[in-house]
Each structure stands twice: as C-alpha cells, then as structure tokens.
Amino acid sequence: VLPTMLGVWSLLLLWGLATPCQGLLEMVGTLARIDQDELGKAIQNSLIGGPILQNVLGTVTSVNQGLLGSTGLLGGGGLLGYGGVFGIVEELSGLKIEELTLPKVSLKLLPGFGVQLKLHSKVRLHGSGPLGGLLQLAAEVNVSSRVALGMNARGTPILILKRCSTLLGHISVLSGLLPPQLFGVVEQTLFKVLPELLCPMVDSVLRVVNELLGTVLGLVPLGALGSVEFTLATLPLTSNQYIELDINSIVKSAAGDIIDFPKPPKPIKVPRKENHTSQVTVPLYLFNTIFGLLQTNGALDIDITPELVPRNVPLTTTDLAAFVPEALAKLPPDQQLLLSLRVKEAPTVMLQNKKATVSIPANIHVLSYLPAGTPEALFELNGVMTLNAQLTPSAAKLHLSLSLERLSVKLASSFVHTFDASRLEEWLSSVVRVAYVPKLNVELDVGIPLPKVLNVNFASAVLEIIENAVVLTVAS
Q1: Alpha carbons 350 and 372: distance in angstroms, whole number
Q2: Residues 430, 458: one domain?
Q3: Is 416 exposed, middle or buried (0-12, 13-18, 19+ CB in 10 A)?
Q4: 141 near 122, Cβ under 8 Å?
C-alpha cells in the first residue's frame, strides 16, 4: 500500500530548486513561516499523546508469534527451525518485542526538498532461551527517514515518507543466557525485521502531523457576517530553518459572496525571521476586506438617541442651538435629537509607521423628535472619523480595539440656515466616543482570523506593524 500511495503523491509534487522568498510577499495572502522546532514538537507530541507506539506493539504481538523459533518468522524450516542452520537450538523461540521506549526526535530541514527525520529508540525483547528460562534482550535502534513536503489534491500541505531505514545499535542481554554463536543470528534477524516493524511508525507519525497541517485550510466563521477561507496559494517551501506557507485569505459574506478589494500597489517587505521563532504576516488586504464585510452588512450604521448616551452628553435642540446660535436659535426648545449615522463607503485601514488607523466616512443626519412624534430632519453632515486601532493577538485571532482620534464634518444640506459645521465637531466627537465607538468594538469582536498551523499559539507573539501588514512573531 505504501509504495502505491507514495506513487500517487509523487505526481502531486513539483519540487525543483525553489527557495523561500527573500523578504518580499508578492501575493496579498497571509504568509506563515513555521520554525523547524514547531515541527519537531508536533512529531514528539504525536508520539507522546497518541496510540502510535501501542499500535506498533499491537501489530507485532498479534501478527508475529515471536520473531524466532518454530512459530516465529524464521521457524519451521527457516534459519533457526528444524532443517535450518541452527536446528539444534529450536528451544530459542517466541522472541517478541514487548516494549518500545519513547523515541527521541531529531529533524533537519532540507532546502528545496523537505525533512530529514530521525527517531532514536530502545527495544526490549523477551522469549525462551536455548537452555530454558526467560531470555530478555535490549537493543538501541535509529530510524532514519527522508520526508518530502508537498501539497495534496485538496491543496493541503502534506509530509510524505519517501525513504526509511533502520540502523541497529548496541544489543545487550538483560537476563538469561545467549551463546555467542546465536548472538550474531539474533542480530541479523533484528536487522531484517525491525525496519518492517518501525518504519510504519514513521508513517503513522506523519499522518498525525498531516492532520494538523490540514487545518490550515477551511472556513473560519465570522459570526453572522460570513467567513474567511484559507487556501494555499503555492507549494510549501523549506529553508534550512523553517517551512514557508503562502496562504490565500478569501473573505466571504454570509451568502457566500466574495468580498474583494484592490490589492496593494507594491509587494509587502517581510522582515527577516529570527531562528527558533515562527512568524505570520497578516496583510492590509485582509483588514480592509473584514471592514468591507462589516460595512456591507450594515454593522457600521447606528441611530443614536438620548437613551444611548450619558446625561452629561447634550443631545437636545436647546443644546444644539447653543453651539451655533445664529443659525439654530429658532429651533423648538428641549426636543430630543436623533443622529442617524450611515456608512455608505467601505472604511480604509492604514498600517504604517508602527501605527494602525481606520478611517470611516459617514453621513450623519441630525433630526429632532418628540417621543410620540415623527422625527423632523434638520441638516445633514458629511463626516470622516479617524480612529486608532489597538491590536492584540490571541491564540488564533488578531483582535482590534478602536478609539476616536478625531472627527471632521462638513455641512451637506440643511433645512434651516447654513452654518460652519466644524463648530459641531467637538460635540459630535463626544457623542461618537460614548455611543458609536463601543458599538464598533462589539462588532469587531470577530477579530482577524489567523491560519492554524501545527497548533502554533500566537497569544504571546511580539506584534510589529510594518507598511501594509502586521507581523506576529512567537518563540518556538
């Protein structure tokens, strides 16, 4: 089965002398650089927490009724059975593997190919000795394998076992007697048998790790807004320190429509990755599309009434007339105000100079009304809100918290007298801070999803805002 499977996967590999990009991200996708230490931990954890070792032992004990003797692999006329070279020692029988020590994992990334994976373990065997009584042996064994990194038909990164060999180390007799002439026979037998028994363990390890790699793809929900789909844009690449994945980030509405925005005019310059760290670069494009999805769904619109603001924030016609008395003095006094804020164009996110800002254009309709009456339009403003974004990473998301930096407005139309709308900016800013910004932060609770690669946790990552991207770096 294994050669057939490798043949199929080999058709999907397009390996040449490709090397990871030299600091420039040409695509607009999310760039993930996963340190070799993370891959090593994933392999070690698959051995610790999973049933891989027990499965190997189960295969040995259920299929092989001992490696040596009349019922063993070489019994019944074989090397040690009747008719064999050592027929006289038929009593040496039932030699079985009873314990595999948890292997120590070492790996080396091979640029342009994949991974060199080594597992060092100890094997304990027991059976009946030639002179009767229990015979216990221990052997050190090194499993060396060459693993290719590729992409399967679904576009998922995958590790594929290309070559596996076993090197037998020191053999010691723990209990019982083993004549010297039989010691070499046992050694030769183990050299032939162990690769067939232990190389499937490597294949089992890779299946577990491939399940983790497979989580890169798929839909990440954004609540009622829609989802983000992560897909591989190109074949995975390896350097001598990390695996690089260029991941497309496709934002979709709840109806399944793709929310698309213009791409950056030039490539993103990705900073150098330090050794023993993993890195993910989140492009500006993903921020803009998330805000575009919020705008399309109407999540950025709000009607502000006195019930939504503290009492110390004025929101009546009398208060409004005090700001521009020459134009608004004739308004009916003490009527409540309704501010209908609508965002008809997508916000713009800026990432540069170690700062993240969001610019939201808005139409603000100011109306007066009585609780039992119909609102009456007073005037309309065209405004632009500039907000500072505080970015905080968690295990799988990049969270945003906004605060208002400034608000500028111009008079668009008026049912009363014309006036200089900039005189209302301070008042409007206080209203927006207490009524609108909290709503924005609730809507933004969905966060910016991060690709899930080998369970790398970016909660403690160092965050760096560069031009048109955010880089998260976490120690392995």
Answers
A1: 44
A2: yes
A3: middle
A4: yes
Name the pTM for this structure. Answer: 0.81
What contacts 196, CB < 8 A, 6 or more positions away? none
Residue 357 token pair: 């800002």
Residues 179-199 pLDDT 10s: 777 777 777 777 777 777 778
Give the H or E element holding residue 321.
Answer: helix 317-323
- Residue 24 maps to a domain: no
Q: What is the pLDDT of residue 9?
A: 39
Residues 265 and 385 in one domain: yes
Answer whether 380's CB lies under 8 Å from 366's CB.
yes
Residue 87 has what pLDDT? 35
Are residues 243 and 176 part of one domain? no
| Mean of pLDDT over the chain | 81
State the chain's maximal CA–CA distance in angstroms.
Answer: 120
Residues in the chain: 476
| Residue whose C-alpha is closest to residue 455's, from 45, 16, 180 | 45
Single-letter amino acid, residue 246: D
CA 149/CA 201 separation, integer angstroms: 18
Domain that holds residue 190: 50-214
Q: Is beta strand 348-352 parallel, antiparallel or unpaired with respect to 376-393?
A: unpaired
pLDDT at residue 371 greater than cutoff 70: yes
Judgement on whether residues 75 and 194 belong to the same structural domain of the protein: yes
Q: Are residues 191 and 291 in the same domain?
A: no
Tell me the residue type at 449: P
Residues 200 and 268 in one domain: no
* Spatial distance between the Cα atoms of 476 and 274, rounded to a whole number of angstroms: 11
For the chain, state the CA radius of gyration.
34
Judged against a pLDDT cut of 90, whether residue 383 lies above it is answered with: yes
Q: Which residues pair with 244 in a beta bridge?
A: 33, 237
Span 88-143, pLDDT tens digits: 334 456 667 777 788 899 999 999 878 999 999 888 887 776 666 788 888 898 99
User: What is the CATH number for 346?
Assistant: 3.15.20.10
Burial 2-16 (b: 16+ CB within 10 A, else e): eeeeeeebeeebeee
Task: Summarize the confidence of residues 455-473 as an average pLDDT.
Answer: 93
Q: Which of 193, 214, 235 is the last residue of a domain?
A: 214
Q: How many helices (H) and strands (E) does the chain have?
A: 9, 22
Confidence at 327, pLDDT banded by 50, 70, 90? confident
Give the residue-averaged pLDDT of 172-180.
Answer: 81
